[in-house]
From TrEMBL, chain A:
It is found in: Endomembrane system; Membrane. GO terms for molecular function: NADH dehydrogenase (ubiquinone) activity; NADH dehydrogenase activity; ubiquinone binding. Keywords: Membrane, Transmembrane, Transmembrane helix. Residues 155-448 form the NADH:quinone oxidoreductase/Mrp antiporter transmembrane domain. One of its GO terms (cellular component) is endomembrane system. Pfam families: Proton_antipo_M. It is a multi-pass membrane protein. This is NADH-quinone oxidoreductase subunit M.
TrEMBL record, chain B:
The keyword DNA damage does not apply. It comes from the Bacteria. Residues 79-129 form the NADH-Ubiquinone oxidoreductase (complex I) chain 5 N-terminal domain. This is NADH:ubiquinone oxidoreductase subunit L. Signal peptide: none annotated. It is found in: Endomembrane system; Membrane. Keywords: Membrane, Transmembrane, Transmembrane helix.
UniProtKB/TrEMBL annotation, chain C:
Belongs to the complex I subunit 4L family. NDH-1 is composed of 14 different subunits. Subunits NuoA, H, J, K, L, M, N constitute the membrane sector of the complex. This is NADH-quinone oxidoreductase subunit K. The keyword Cell membrane applies. GO terms for cellular component: NADH dehydrogenase complex; plasma membrane. Its EC number is 7.1.1.-. It is a multi-pass membrane protein. It is found in: Cell membrane; Membrane. Pfam families: Oxidored_q2 (PF00420). It comes from Puia dinghuensis.
From TrEMBL, chain D:
NDH-1 is composed of 14 different subunits. Subunits NuoA, H, J, K, L, M, N constitute the membrane sector of the complex. Belongs to the complex I subunit 2 family. It is a multi-pass membrane protein. The gene is nuoN. Its main location: membrane. It catalyses: a quinone + NADH + 5 H(+)(in) = a quinol + NAD(+) + 4 H(+)(out). This is NADH-quinone oxidoreductase subunit N. Its EC number is 7.1.1.-. One of its GO terms (molecular function) is NADH dehydrogenase (quinone) (non-electrogenic) activity.
Amino acid sequence: MILVWIIGLLLCGGILCWLTDTWKAGYAKWIALASVVADGLIISALLVHFVTGTGPQAVSPYPAPQVTTPSAEPHAASPHAATPWLIDYRNTWIPSFGISLRLSMDGLSLILLSLTIFLGLLAVLSSWKEISERTGFFYFNLLWTLAGIAGVFLATDLFLFYFFWEVMLVPMYLLILIWGDSNRRYAAYKFFLFTQAGGLLMLLAILALYFIHGRQSGTYTFDYFAILQSTLSPTAARWIMLGFLAAFAVKLPVVPLHNWLPDAHSEAPTAGSIVLAGLLLKTGAYGIIRFVLPFFPQASTAIAPWAMLAGVISIVYGALLAFAQTDLKRLIAYTSVSHMGFVLLGIFAMQETAMQGVVIQLIAHGISTGALFAIAGMIKERLHTRELARMGGLQTSMPAMGNLAMVFAMASLGLPLFGNFIAEFLILLGAFPQYATLVVIASTALVFSALYCLRMMMRVFFGPAAPPTITPPTASAQQDIDSREWIILGLLCVGIVLLGLYPQPVMDLAKETIQQLTLNFRI
Amino acid sequence: MNELAYIPALPLLGFLVLALGGRRMSQKAVAITGAGSVCAAALLTMVLCGQFFGSGAVGAAAGHASPASVHYDLQLGQWFHAGALSISFGLRVDSLSLVFMFIITFVGALIHLYSTAFMRGDRDYARFFACMNLFVCAMLILVMADNLVLLYLGWEGVGLCSYLLIGFWYDSPANCLAANKAFIITRIGDTALLIGLFLLFKELATLDIAAILRQSPGHFRLGSPVITLIALLFLAGGMGKSAQLPLQTWLPDAMAGPSPVSALIHAATMVTAGVYLIARMHVLFQLSPLAMTVTAITGALTLLVAACSAMVQTDIKRILAYSTISQIGYMFLALGVGAYGAAIFHFFTHAFFKALLFLAAGAVIESLHHEHNIFRMGGLKDKLPVVYWTFLAGAASLAALPLVSAGFYSKEQILWYAWRAANGGTALWLAALAGAVITAFYSTRLLLVVFWGEAKTSVSSRPGRLITIPLIILAFLSLTAGFVEWPHNLLPVHLFSGFLQSVLPAPATRSGGETIGQLLAVMATLAGIGVGYQLYHRQPEIGIITRWQQRPLAAAIRNFLFGGWGFDRLYDTLFVRPLVSITRLNRADIFDQLYVAVVRAARTGHRLLSASQNGSLRWYAVGVLMGILFILTLLL
Amino acid sequence: MAVVNIDRVLFVAAVLFLLGLTGVLTRKNILFMLISIEIMLNAAGLAFVAAGSKWHQPDGQAMFLFILAMAAAEVSVGLALVMQIWHQHKTMDVEDLNKLKDE
Amino acid sequence: MNELQFQALLPFIVLAAASILVILSIAFGRSHTFIQVAGFGMMCLVVLAMWLVRDALPREIAPLLVVDGLGALFTGLIIFSVLVIGLLSFIYFEEREENPKEYYILLFLATLGSAVLTISRHFISLFIGLELLSVSLYALIAYLRTRNNAVEAGMKYLMLAALSSAFLLFGMALIYLETGSMEFTGIARGLPSSGTPILFIMGMGFLLVAIGFKLALAPFHLWAADVYQGAPSPVTVFIATVSKTGVFAVLLRFAQAVHLQQYPAAMTIVVVISVASMIVGNLLALQQQNIKRLLAYSSIAHFGYLLVAFLPGDAAGAEAGFFYLLAYSITLLSAFGVITLLSTRQEDAGDLSGYRGLFWRDPVMGAVLAVALLSLAGIPLTAGFLGKFLVLGAGIGRQLWVPVIVLVLTSVIGLYFYLRVISTLFEKMPPAPARARPLHPFFYYATYAVLILLMGLSFWLGTFPRPAIREIEALLNIRLL
């Protein structure tokens, strides 16, 4: 039930924002903040309970009469072994199609959920001043996007999953379309069309799965745990998996399906960029971990080398493009492509260490890239530009921001002390034994990431200040970050360092899930 | 043994204080925090040394103690563990680490004191000390780590600090570029090291240093490809950090940083991290003769190449930079021939005299309002007496002036091992010898040109006491530090090697020829000094140089050496330009075209179909008919 | 009554139908188009009658009556529109009716 | 005709009576408002009648009609649509300074025709219903003789519709000739057990042509855009929803009766038609600037989707099909409602530029239109999504991969132009043109309310379709075996 609350709070909060704004401007942001904070409290309570507290009391969400099919499908094995599921909520929705309103939470979802709320909070804060017009509707969209994302992380009914998957798109689309930058329309279209194309293919796959399972077991249902029990013919498995992968690969994104990302990220308002980079990309990874691997063990082992190859390509290609960009936000956007490549690499290594790395990477990337986007937004508020050519020497006028930016730049180039290093280290280490060559190629990204991060720092904060003819010095252009921005960046900074120094709690939370998963792939 | 933790913790604390509150603190407060933290760390280290000696490590020196190495362990707690991997914040201090810790904290403390005066009035006083403290902390972690991941943390940390400090005066693009260059080139080495880590973990399933050293002899065949690969990857890591061929190009540019930085990071400590790594992992290298040879050759080549470049430089700091590269070359040579102790010993002495030289150079530069070109200096002998005498000591030590200078003892040892050690050889020895000559030569040149002759630039300011005291201390040490270890045919004093032997095995040597070797070494030094004196002091003969300058060939050679053997240009054409141009070309992301094509196709389809909606009723009727015919054809 | 050969009648109907169709497609004058459509409808009616007689059922004829009625209604509306067109455009040419189309 | 059958027919009789009532009240010179209200009342009566006779179902009124669940369902949808359309019509026509009264006669006649279609089980009733529908539509389309080329539109529709009905008749004649029966069931019986005679196939083809024309499926779609654009907005939405609903109902019934799915040839035709419609419709709409034309093209595509649900010919298919139609009707009604409200006296609000920043100018209408478009695009939370979902399900259940894949791909194309319109709605607001205050505030706001209601309905169907689906299933099961 509490899971429903988490999502419901956001939805209601959003509607409230919209309504109040129509008659009393200025309340919206507070309501938004309140609802996010409330969610934050719930989540932190959960975190405290499950991390420090008595630890996961596993609820077994598997259908009572266990059908352990003696089949080649390994995941039909040990569902009774300590299940990773912490909370399970179900309610009927459209019984005639076996669609139920089912939300379940395991360590992984909990982690990503907390990330969602954390970044959501910062997104609200970071648009505090930036959004001056139609605030109500803005926060409505923002909160609904968050709700959709939270739903995606919790849904364990395929239909419901798809439902949330789509729900998070439209508000995001509007965020980009209405509050975006100069080229927003194009970016918004691109974002929506890419993701929707992928999503529809996934819908096909889901339906196919639904019917196959129905034919086998006689009960037509979209329930995740029920479908987990069904066995697929290899060909069917391959095609259906491709359907799922299409959606997730677009979201992740994997080269060459990544083209929506730079435009969307760079045109979106700051909050939008934070949510996009920090959360939306994660849904893709989450989808692969939650659905693709458990549903199609054989098929995914078969495709693993190619997937990892794609991951490596994304890593290198994204890094190279990031190096070439002249637009700050585009640069950061391409770094995401590179970083998410690591995620793909790690997932399909199908190996515990790498998988742990993936989980860390999801959070670390969310924080570091989110922070970079926040900084880019602050710079844009001051200089009214995203062009690297029109920046420079900002360290003089705003040292604090410069130093913080340095922290996050270092984080995203994978320096130890920061979460990203742990993530990349674990991923590479885990993948190395089987796929040495790929890992070696991927490791070159460490150099490339240094290239683009240092270039960014140099162009933005170091060197001589841009001549006033290019960027007219305004009063705002001089002032360093204020207390609100301090809070935002400070929180992120603490987060990323904590993750780098003490990642263990996160890893322990995800452990159960991951072991359950990698159980199927023991070589 | 909890003091261990405080040693790196104190500088860290200093860093945190300065980083968070630095901009609101007075310069005095900043200086006290910055320097104080490191001094405290230094004191702690001394205490630690004392305890260490007390705990019978010296007994080991006499040779009758058990070879089981004396060491202190401290577990600060779990870092992370996943699957088979388990990493902890564990410190492990044995004699090797202790030597490094001593240098880091002690020399570091002196340099911090120096900087408090040197950097006074700088806009970013606090930032400077923050970075310096962070550096000391990271370096300490690097040498104290008990597992490779923690070591890597320190390894990258020092890289970061070096980057920050090279680009400390960020408003000139040149400095930023130098900083980036330093970071990226070392990063290449780091990546190699990381891959080495992966490989090692794949083989041994642990990254704990002690465990690795224990298990690898049993696990790897002697000279098996795997171990060779691992050793070479580690070597590559060392090359990056220690500016060895072919990754040496960043160090000369790194002189863009303030002089104390050059002294601490780019002379005394960070650049020797590679030496530490290899010494620490010597077991792996022992297992792979090939790797050893490569190391030795790298060292030999580097020391020659760098020394030659140092001969012709005109920027005082660049001269010192090249000499640093070349001296580290000596250490690599020693490592390569298995004389780990000798390498560490040379590191020990080198830290003193090279730090001294840099600091002195800094003092000179300051007092000549930022003049770097040695040929516009001169005649400072009487204007800056303290600086002169200390510099003299440093230069003598660098040139390895026999008996009276620390450099002599360490270098002589290396020369001898290069010749006589099991996997040493005449070629290596000759290379080292030639290096010695050149070193002596350019040290003389440096000294004479800067301090003798007539003044060319007026002295603006005299260095204060905070600057001179560290100089004097270092000068003293760079003369006397060598006495802890004598060539065994002169005096049976082997404190240093005895101290280390518990960790680092002494190399097998072919006995004989000590005296010859020493004589030759001495002669080499004296020859170098003599030539330098001839060319740069005896006024009439100064013409020789100028006459050479006229000769095109000589000029060409000189420029070639001056440009650091054209490595920069090579890399520029091989890697940098292609990379940049390719990425520029693809800035618009080629894959976009794919989707543009799709869109274009759809638009075309729209246009074609839209043409059919031409509003003519008869055309529509025809359309219907067409449809019918189509259907009928389908049916029949 | 004399038994008529169904196929022939059907053939006639088909011919009529095609004639009407060609009329619709070839004539430009709205009136003539309407007339051709009438012909087509009647062809269909004829076919119905034939079919009805084949099965000896009244349905065919019944259907024919309906067709007549419907044709009448249709033509009446059609003619009304024709008048409107004449008022507005002063023409009977369908090709002039092309205000509505894609740009 | 016993009185049970009479009962069963009651709603339709009331419906017929409605038009007569209108005629009378015109004769007695009642006002537009009166007629409006009366018509509204009559429609409510029809609904009431349906509620009363729900137990009398299913009834067969041999040989022409059969009143069963399917008929009731579709008739219900038709009546519902007409209720809304009637409301829309009032302000539309009242403000057009035409003489609007006769309009209602035609409207109700057309409705009757369409309703008859839904219950017809015989060629004659089919024919009567269809012609009743078409002939009144000719007049309806051209009703506003002098405004935006209504007459041209009417003429085009008349010609082509007549052409198609000629084909329809000829096809019927051929089938009759072969099978000796004009009842759907009889046709199935009359067929020779082995092999299907050529004439029958041809007749089937002609039949499909006529149906395809009415549903504006490619390649018989050419008329749609022009007629949609030329016709008065309420009539346009009538064509889009009511007439098509009736035709689809009869298609469904006919197919079920003769087991159309058994003829691979026929099925290939349907597949080809549906695929063609999806592609053609979406591509045509891609850069269309006139929203009425755009909706026309999108309707082409949507009926292409609908055929995918028709293909399996099983219960799931019918269910999906009806739900889709329901969602589609609701959506179109709200969309055209907005168009109607925005139309000026001179011309309908066709051009997209008129919608710039609508969301900020008039949030309610903006929201309604946006939601309608999202529903057309099949985005969750809206009825359209569930419709599309069910259709896909029906298709995949029978492994109809080709049309299903095409559906997915084309609906991505479709998404583009829906987004285009939506982004227009959200554009920065230009100086808003001063809108004349409504002449008839009551009806104006009533319309508003209805629009909001429709939006809510769309959300409701999209999120909690459970009751609706239960009802649909229940009704579809009420049938004669």
